[in-house]
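Look at one such:
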Amino acid sequence: MKKNDPNSRHKKNAKKLLILFVNSVLFFALYRLIVELGERLQNPMIYYIGSSIYMAATAVLIIAYFILNGGTFGKYNPTWDDLPDGGRWTKERKAEFLRRLPERQAKAKQLLYILLPLIVTLFLSYFELFLLA
């Protein structure tokens, strides 16, 4: 198959979408289990701890994504001139940063398969809390 074959791109995109959907369902099911457990045991602390873990994990993953993506949230690739001059940013450090950036951006892209379902889960839980309660 060719690299730009529309069928292969559609299959890859469908697979990515399926992975995101399954992860979202799993994260939301786990979150609902935590909420249900707190209600059945009549212990709101279980809910508070569970939601705090989800929020903390989301915050840590957002920071990790930002760092791995070279200090940006988009597809922007910094150039040599964009990096700071002087101080700790020597020519060797700049070269190393730019050399490793594609590898780190690939890791950041993989991190989105966990981060996006967590964000969806938190959005749905707060949507349920504020609008449906």
The chain has three helices and no strands.
